[in-house]
User: Which sequence fits this backbone?
């Protein structure tokens, strides 16, 4: 029973405490005056009566009512019902004169005569009956205003003495003695909240989503503030929010109505639910972390910094659906054509319960199975219960769910556990729902209508709980009359009540209560049902990785193999087991299996078994989170203290010392959960034992009371709680003592266990708590102690024992602190006595110290054990001169984003591999073996040159079975990716040393630090890098030149020969000829250069001779581009000369010393012109077309200031020409001189008219040009992106006109950049006389010179209509574009992890192919221009990147010479090296260029060559491998060829001419070209067997992206060996393999071999047909002991044989062909026949017979019969129809020679050999060509034999004369040949 009202208070306006209009309230009277003992009077109640402040108003307000809620210090809530009415006061100003004066001064306002002040009647109660309070206070007010005959004291006395029951579903009628009657219904269960209509109102005000946000915010402990202008609505909203949180209770600050004066409460740091009047809205704006719900506006505002965790899906969606069906049933049928009649929502009261039912249903789903995760740790005297959060989340598979995690950690849930945990108590609706209806909820959750039915059933129960008697008589309470509500005359004020009479009522009632018998509340206690266990309810969520029965079988088999000592079998299964242990089921299966092998808490293993078990334990624990939600660590905890191995006498090592590296062991919550679980098991055992009787044996227990064993701890506790009152005092004390002892003994046990897992094996090392102290943080990462924690500990156990002990005690201290904290917590919670707790604190340090001593012995012994068998570290083979910088560090090579090596795409799992990483002076090498034992025999190697490293970053890697500390990811621009994880034996300091060394080697201080310079030097070379003055005087340069000149060879004076492309025979000797070829050097005096001496000194001449020998000069000789001779003797007919103006690199540092310039231009002009160009790179000639005599020039772009001047026509002659004008004139002169050198121009010289121009052209252009002209127009359009419709593009006659645009037609560069914004204005050219510009269509003649310029440089220039040059503006790819594109390409070809985007998508996004397309497109355009007789000048950027690419490609496409070995070398030396491509800068070779990053301009060029090679495979002497070789070594820094940025820098460092001079160390090759030459002599690795060029063939490749292929250099990998570009390594590896393979001779040898992609080198294991035959030939020669012939000689012989045979048929070509397939016509070749290497290789049938040494292959023209046969038969057993010796006549004046002739009917040949024994055929006559066989006659030189012995053989080509031994044999030969012919 409880009082309906505790206090009645009258509160009025306090006139004395007014301050500037702000009044205060004061308590006028309160009843009773003395506080109740059980309910003290709430303080500050006057603030809550007028929350907006006490104020007087000029007009009377209507009476108001609301209920405020106050919470006292014991968390009890007091409901204060406030009834406020307004009473008239005389104006208080008039009563107080002084105040009135002040007021008048402040504001001159007319004060009203009457004001009204508030007065409140307040009723304070602990019960929440809002309507009853409203009626009671209303009645008191009615009695007062209507002057009813009942005294107010009586009404108030009755109110204060009214007593009603708290719950039980009874109804009580009350009356206050004023003719009133009210019926109060008490709820059936007091645990369910009473909500009235407040929940439904809340949803109507805010909507479903908003309320759900508030609901989640309240549960996850956020701050919530309600705003409304109605106080009652604030109270209702807060009450509604609390009602839907049931069964959780809100335990933070709860103030539904907060007075304005207390607004600072809103800044509290703790969560709250508070209501505030909207009047104070502005003051709530600056609250940053408060969620504001505006009830009047229906909005919820969530600040940005607040993140609300929402319900997990699908719960959220299902809850929203259910709520919408309750609140808006019409929504579902809104679209129906015939909606049902009755779809109205329920009445508000019912709807309120339906909404609450939805939330009850939601909580039943959230908390289902919670009782299975309760640990009962004490039953008597009071149950103590703890919740195992990790197990609950793990079984529900909701570990990742933020919302549930926060709810379970919250205070509300803690209260829920302590309130609902006890197993014996009264139950309510929620208990029933969560225990008995889980199955129903699960089945119905996907069907909304079934859910709604269930909700309605629950709503009915909730409604019945609040309204047990719905049909009850209505209340009868009097209201005030209308006249008193709207009074016209003054009301009398509320009277002062007689306190004595009210007190009499209260005393009388109290006395009555004392004499009445006590009311016994009939509580129905019962055992709380637990519901279905969790495991069954969540199977469908399952584990991420399904554990099939097969996986579990593998785990079981492996464990049984280990214990049966079948180690080989176990080893095979191990990788599969470690993969399976990723899954939860397999991990639990593993612990169960191990349990079966433990006997009496101990299992002794041998070393190998122990290693395997520990490894599996580590793998199992590795995937456990620190919370151990699946209970795996809990299941392993007893096992790690059971499995052990004997190390020595009395020394045993347990598994726990090897599994400490896991975070779970340092998580306090894990230990608590484990402790409580064990305590529960022991207490359960304790009570089962006492019930069954201690005398029963275990076997009887199992038989007789098996049913008792299944009883859960909670059921047992419930039974015990029920019996507790029936036990006697002694019995109770005994039970309490037994439980307490059980907990105490477990605490000791756990102190031991924790010391096992927290103390490291080597306690001196401090290894365990490396990063954070165990003692300080709850969730520290595992097993590492820092010195800082231990250092802060003053008390060391043995301060005198010295340094080591002090260190070990560091670990000990932190472990002791951790265990102490644990013990304090669990013992306090489980009620252990203080004496026991003290004993524990004394015991713990001893336990730890004892364990440390044990561990020391174990550690000592374990050191003596042989280490675990890790794979042996394999040493890499090194190059000569390459040295190891660091010894190998054990690492794991981890798989990256490429699937080929991991076995996922089929094939063996080569990765992950275990081995070592080696750092040498040249390379970074990984060498190891795959961890998968089934692939274990293979060796995996990955390496790349250090100089090619582009990115190195730290990563953290977790391998399958080990805990791995850290890793590195290293990418190289040779398309290698090494991703490694360091083994635990590698110290992290060593990793840092490794990274520093790597960085030093990658970016040396100076180029002298690169491998190309340091190779072969014993001591490490340290170069002081002096910063050079940029304007270094030329004298010092001369000195350097002198130094380097001395190294050169003494030269011989040889007269200059004109160079002609070598034929096949002398191609190989070309190099030596060129070396001999010298030029006599003389020089005219150059007056313009004052710094130089007037003549070149002799030492400089030596240097000049070297310069002359350089590639440029040799090529100029070949092309006939000018001479180096005295000005007097210079032939004026030659249009060009070799200028030495730059011999001291004074004009342009990045140009070579000798340059080709027009004959007529003096050196002084060149100096002036060069200033207009960037980097002084003025236009020079680099190639001339031998047919059209058009020249190709290269230069940099113009300086910005020179652009306009360049195109400016001198319209107005000025008296003094400015510098700019004179320069632009000289530039024009320069270009005019170039144009004048062209024959086509000189023929039309003197022409002033258009007709002259065109006629001149017509006379020079040949038919081929006519055909090609429209093609150029198309090309030009593609390059510039011009639209078709532009007028004037083509002339009427169909000849090609210049690509010009009028001002209206604009230029859109779509071919380059589709998004170019402003279109380039066309060039309108004014006439020289300043008249109007020519109409465009008149100018229909091609220009003599086209300047390929950068679009951005050429804006605003005007052009002369009669100038003979024209600008083609294009947009080039910027260096930054190339850099970024390459980065993306590298990531596409070598992804670090598996990406969602496919490989092709990534390649496309890199835009690499479109960059190639641009470069090729421009090159093809220039080739066309040159081929049609126009010269071209490439003038882009700084002239050393794109310009170099374009001019190189143009020469390669136009001149067949550059497609040979020597030509390509010359091209690269000339255009790339001499003309100053910045290899060092673009390759970031030194520290200075590190910031610029790697930009592969040269690689892009090689890729373009590769694309051309693919389309024209028969035009190149070198193979694709040659290009890959250069691509690899141009960044490898193995050779000096590609170091430094220009010839100037190379001369300065003395590297330019040393290649010939110095041959000190023959092992070390300094030039890549020498290396290639050497290799090429040994083996045909670089040779293209398909090489058969056409005469003067100009290649025109397709350039569209669809025609380009991704280069396999970017994607191929051979893990069996390092990249195959260092050939010394290859030879050594093969020798090592041969040695390794020798012992296995006894086993049967199979010829078959498995070839693995990405592992084997395909060219090595599957060579093409010709290479294979050449190899076989070499090996046969070696076997026969013959001196091996060079492969090139063999090959040339084969070609010679074919050529002699084919000579009369085919015209002599540039080089005779091996593979001139007759169906490949000239046209198809020029269109680009795409013959892939792979496609052609195997189909070549080259019969290298032992008898027939050579067979011919098809030749254009008719196919010879012999060729047909040679393809099918190449064996030794041939048909020899007739054979014998014949004399054959040689060439004229040569003697007759006896030869062994063989007539072969099958092959239809007459072959001859030197002797009978000779295996090699010297030649043959095809019988198909024989026309007649006739008798012959002897000649002067013929042998002296009878005349009849002579006969002749006439073929279509010539007559062969033979002489037999005698006449008979001659006749035989003639008959045999004749019969052969007739057979055919």
Assistant:
């Amino acid at each position: 029973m409880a009082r309906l009202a505790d206090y009645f208070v009258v509160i009025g306006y306090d006139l004395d405490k007014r301050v500037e209009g702000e009044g205060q309230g004061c308590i006028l009277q309160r009843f009773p005056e003395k506080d109740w003992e059980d309910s003290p009077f709430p303080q500050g109640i006057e603030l809550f009566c007028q929350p907006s402040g006490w104020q007087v108003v000029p007009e009377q307000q209507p009476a108001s009512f609301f209920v405020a809620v106050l919470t006292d210090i014991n968390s009890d809530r007091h409901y204060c019902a406030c009834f406020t009415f307004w009473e008239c006061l005389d104006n208080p100003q008039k009563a107080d004169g002084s105040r009135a004066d002040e007021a008048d001064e402040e504001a001159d306002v007319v004060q009203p005569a009457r004001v009204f002040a508030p007065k409140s009647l307040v009723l304070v109660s602990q019960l929440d009956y809002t309507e009853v309070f409203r009626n009671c206070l209303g009645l008191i007010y009615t009695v007062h205003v209507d002057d009813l005959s009942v005294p107010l004291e009586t009404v108030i006395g009755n109110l204060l003495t009214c007593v009603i029951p708290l719950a039980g579903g009874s109804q009580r009628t009350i009356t206050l003695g004023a003719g009133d009657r009210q019926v109060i219904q008490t709820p059936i269960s007091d645990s369910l909240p009473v909500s009235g209509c407040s929940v439904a109102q809340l949803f109507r005000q805010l909507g479903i989503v908003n309320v759900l946000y508030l609901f989640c915010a309240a549960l996850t402990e956020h701050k919530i503030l309600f705003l409304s202008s109605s106080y009652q609505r604030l109270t209702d909203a807060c009450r509604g929010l609390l009602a839907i949180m049931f069964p959780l209770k809100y335990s933070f600050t709860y103030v539904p109505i907060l007075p304005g004066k207390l607004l600072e409460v809103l800044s509290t740091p703790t969560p709250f639910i508070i209501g505030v009047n909207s009047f104070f809205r502005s003051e709530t704006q600056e609250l940053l972390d408060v969620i504001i719900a505006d009830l009047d506006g229906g909005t919820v505002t969530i600040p940005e910094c607040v993140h609300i965790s929402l319900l997990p899906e699908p719960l959220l969606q299902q809850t929203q659906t259910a709520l919408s069906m309750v609140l808006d049933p019409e929504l579902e049928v809104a679209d129906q054509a015939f909606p049902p009649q009755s779809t109205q929502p329920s009445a508000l009261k019912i709807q309120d319960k339906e909404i609450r039912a939805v939330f009850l249903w939601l909580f039943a789903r959230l908390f289902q199975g919670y009782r299975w995760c309760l640990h009962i740790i004490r039953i008597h005297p009071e149950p103590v219960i703890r919740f195992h959060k990790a197990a609950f989340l793990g079984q529900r598979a909701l570990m990742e769910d933020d919302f549930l995690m926060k709810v379970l950690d919250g205070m509300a849930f803690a209260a829920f556990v302590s309130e609902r945990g006890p197993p014996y108590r009264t139950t309510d609706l929620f208990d029933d729902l969560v225990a008995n209806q889980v199955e129903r909820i699960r089945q119905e959750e996907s069907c909304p209508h079934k859910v709604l039915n269930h909700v309605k059933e629950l709503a009915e129960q909730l409604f019945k709980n609040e309204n047990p008697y719905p049909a009850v008589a209505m209340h009868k309470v009097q209201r005030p009359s209308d006249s008193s509500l709207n009074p016209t005359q003054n009301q009398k004020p509320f009277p002062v009540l007689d306190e004595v009479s009210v007190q009499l009522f209260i005393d009388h009632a109290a006395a009555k209560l004392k004499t009445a018998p006590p009311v016994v509340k009939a509580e129905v206690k019962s055992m709380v049902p637990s519901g279905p266990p969790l495991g069954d309810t969540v199977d469908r969520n399952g584990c991420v990785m399904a554990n099939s029965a097969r996986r579990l079988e593998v785990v079981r088999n492996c464990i049984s193999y280990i214990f049966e000592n079948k180690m080989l079998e176990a080893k095979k299964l191990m990788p599969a087991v470690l993969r399976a242990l990723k899954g939860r089921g397999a991990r639990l299966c593993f612990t169960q299996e191990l349990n079966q092998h433990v006997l009496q808490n101990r299992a002794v293993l041998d070393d190998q078994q122990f290693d395997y078990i520990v490894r599996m334990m580590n793998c199992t624990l590795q995937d456990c989170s620190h919370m151990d939600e699946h209970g795996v660590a809990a299941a392993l905890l007893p096992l790690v203290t059971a499995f052990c191995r004997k190390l020595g006498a009395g020394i045993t090592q347990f598994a726990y010392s090897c599994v400490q590296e896991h975070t779970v062991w340092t998580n306090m919550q894990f230990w608590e959960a484990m402790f409580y679980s064990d305590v529960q098991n022991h207490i359960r055992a304790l009570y089962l034992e006492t019930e069954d009787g201690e005398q029963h044996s275990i076997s009887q227990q199992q038989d007789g009371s098996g049913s008792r064993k299944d009883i859960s701890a909670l059921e047992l506790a419930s039974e015990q709680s029920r019996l507790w009152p029936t036990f006697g005092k002694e019995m109770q004390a005994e039970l309490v003592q037994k439980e307490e002892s059980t907990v105490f003994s477990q605490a000791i046990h756990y102190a031991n266990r924790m010391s096992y897992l927290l103390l490291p094996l080597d306690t001196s090392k401090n290894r365990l708590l490396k990063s954070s102290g165990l003692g300080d943080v709850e969730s520290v990462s595992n097993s590492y102690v820092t010195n800082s924690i231990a250092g802060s500990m003053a008390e060391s156990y043995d301060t005198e024992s010295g340094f080591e002990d002090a260190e070990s005690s560091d670990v000990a201290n932190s472990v002791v602190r951790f265990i102490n904290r644990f013990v304090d917590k669990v013992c306090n919670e489980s009620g252990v006595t203080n004496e026991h707790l003290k004993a524990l604190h004394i015991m713990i340090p001893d336990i730890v110290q004892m364990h440390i001593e044990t561990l020391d012995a174990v550690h000592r012994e374990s050191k003596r054990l042989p280490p675990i068998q890790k794979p042996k570290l394999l040493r890499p083979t090194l190059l000569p001169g390459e040295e190891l910088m660091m010894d190998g560090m054990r690492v794991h090579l981890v798989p990256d984003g490429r699937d080929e090596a991991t076995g996922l795409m089929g094939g063996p799992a080569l990765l992950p591999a275990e081995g070592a990483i080696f750092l040498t002076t040249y390379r970074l090498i990984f060498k190891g073996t795959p961890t998968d034992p089934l692939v274990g025999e293979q060796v995996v190697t990955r390496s790349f040159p250090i100089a090619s490293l582009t990115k190195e970053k730290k990563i953290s890697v977790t391998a399958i079975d080990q805990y791995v500390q850290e890793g590195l990811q290293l990418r190289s621009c040779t398309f290698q990716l090494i991703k490694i994880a360091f083994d635990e034996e590698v110290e992290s300091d060593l990793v840092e040393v490794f990274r520093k060394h790597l960085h030093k080697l990658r970016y040396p201080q100076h180029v002298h630090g690169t491998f190309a310079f340091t190779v072969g030097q014993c001591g490490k070379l340290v170069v002081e890098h002096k910063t050079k003055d940029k304007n270094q005087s030329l004298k010092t340069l001369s000195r350097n030149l002198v130094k380097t000149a001395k190294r050169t060879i003494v030269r011989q004076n040889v007269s200059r020969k004109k160079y002609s492309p070598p034929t096949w025979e002398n191609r190989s000797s070309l190099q030596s000829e060129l070396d001999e070829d010298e030029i006599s050097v003389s020089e005219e005096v150059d007056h313009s250069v004052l710094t130089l001496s007037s003549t070149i000194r002799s030492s400089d001449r030596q240097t000049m001779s070297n310069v002359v020998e350089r590639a440029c000069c040799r090529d100029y000789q070949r092309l006939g581009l000018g001479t180096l001779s005295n000005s007097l003797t210079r032939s004026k007919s030659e249009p060009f000369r070799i200028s030495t103006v730059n011999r001291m690199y004074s004009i342009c540092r990045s140009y070579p010393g000798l340059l080709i310039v027009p004959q007529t231009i003096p050196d002084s002009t060149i100096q002036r012109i060069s200033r207009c160009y960037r980097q002084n790179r003025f236009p020079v000639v680099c190639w001339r077309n031998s047919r059209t005599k058009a020249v190709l020039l290269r230069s940099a772009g113009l300086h910005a200031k020179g652009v306009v001047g360049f195109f400016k026509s001198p319209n107005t002659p000025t008296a003094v020409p400015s510098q700019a004008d004179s320069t632009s004139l000289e530039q024009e002169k320069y270009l005019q001189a170039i144009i004048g050198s062209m024959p086509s121009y000189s023929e039309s010289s003197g022409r002033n008219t258009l007709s002259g121009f065109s006629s001149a052209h017509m006379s020079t252009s040949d038919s081929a040009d006519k055909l090609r002209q429209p093609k150029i127009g198309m090309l030009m359009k593609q390059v510039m992106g011009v639209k078709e419709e532009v007028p004037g593009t083509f002339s009427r006659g169909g000849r090609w006109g210049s690509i010009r645009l009028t001002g209206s037609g604009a230029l859109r560069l779509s071919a380059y950049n589709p998004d170019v914004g402003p279109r380039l204005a066309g060039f309108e050219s004014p006439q020289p006389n300043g008249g109007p510009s020519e109409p465009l269509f008149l100018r229909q003649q091609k220009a003599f010179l086209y300047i390929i310029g950068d679009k951005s440089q050429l804006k605003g220039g005007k052009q002369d209509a009669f100038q003979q040059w024209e600008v083609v503006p294009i947009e080039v790819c910027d260096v930054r574009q190339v850099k970024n594109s390459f980065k993306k390409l590298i990531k596409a070809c070598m992804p670090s992890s598996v990406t969602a985007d496919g490989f092709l998508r990534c390649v496309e996004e890199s835009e690499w192919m479109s960059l190639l397309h641009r470069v090729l497109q421009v090159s093809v355009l220039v080739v066309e221009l040159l081929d049609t007789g126009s010269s071209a000048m490439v003038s882009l950027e700084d002239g050393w990147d794109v310009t170099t690419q374009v001019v190189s490609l143009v020469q390669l496409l136009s001149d067949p010479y550059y497609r040979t070995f020597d030509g390509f070398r010359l091209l690269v030396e000339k255009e790339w090296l001499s003309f100053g491509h910045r290899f060092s800068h673009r390759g970031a070779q030194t520290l200075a260029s590190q910031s610029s990053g790697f930009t592969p301009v040269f690689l892009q060029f090689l890729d373009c060559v590769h694309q051309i090679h693919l389309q024209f495979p028969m035009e190149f002497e070198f193979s694709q491998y040659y290009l890959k070789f250069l691509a690899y070594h141009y960044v490898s820094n193995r050779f000096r060829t590609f170091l430094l940025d220009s010839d100037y820098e190379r001369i300065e460092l003395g590297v330019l001419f040393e290649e010939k001079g110095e041959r000190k160390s023959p092992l070390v090759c300094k030039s890549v070209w020498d290396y290639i030459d050497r290799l090429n002599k040994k083996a045909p690795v670089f040779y293209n067997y398909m090489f058969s060029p056409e005469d003067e063939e100009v290649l025109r490749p397709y350039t569209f992206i669809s025609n380009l292929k991704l280069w396999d250099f970017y994607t191929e990998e051979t893990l069996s060996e390092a990249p195959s570009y260092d050939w010394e390594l290859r030879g050594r590896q093969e020798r090592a393999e041969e040695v390794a393979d020798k012992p296995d001779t006894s086993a049967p040898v199979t010829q078959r071999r498995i070839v693995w992609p990405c592992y084997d080198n395909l060219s090595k294991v599957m060579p093409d047909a010709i290479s294979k035959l050449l190899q076989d030939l070499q090996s046969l020669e070696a076997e026969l002991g013959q001196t091996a012939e060079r492969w090139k000689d063999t090959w040339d012989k084969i070609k010679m044989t074919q050529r002699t045979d084919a000579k009369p048929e085919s015209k002599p070509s540039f080089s005779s062909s091996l593979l001139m397939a007759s169906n490949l016509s000239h046209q198809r070749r020029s269109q680009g026949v795409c013959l892939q290497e792979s496609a052609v290789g195997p189909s070549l049938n080259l019969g290298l017979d032992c008898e027939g040494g050579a067979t011919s292959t098809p030749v254009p023209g008719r196919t010879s019969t012999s060729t047909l046969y040679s393809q099918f038969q190449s064996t030794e057993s041939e048909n020899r129809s007739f054979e014998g010796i014949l004399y054959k006549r040689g060439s004229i004046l040569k003697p007759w020679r006896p030869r062994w002739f063989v007539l072969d009917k099958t092959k239809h040949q007459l072959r001859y050999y030197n002797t009978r024994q000779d295996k090699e055929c010297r030649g043959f006559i095809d019988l198909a060509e024989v026309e007649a066989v006739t008798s012959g006659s002897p000649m002067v030189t013929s042998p002296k034999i009878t005349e009849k012995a002579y006969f002749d053989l006439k073929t279509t080509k010539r007559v062969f004369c033979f002489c037999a031994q005698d006449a008979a044999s001659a006749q035989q030969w003639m008959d045999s040949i004749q019969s052969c012919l007739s057979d055919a």
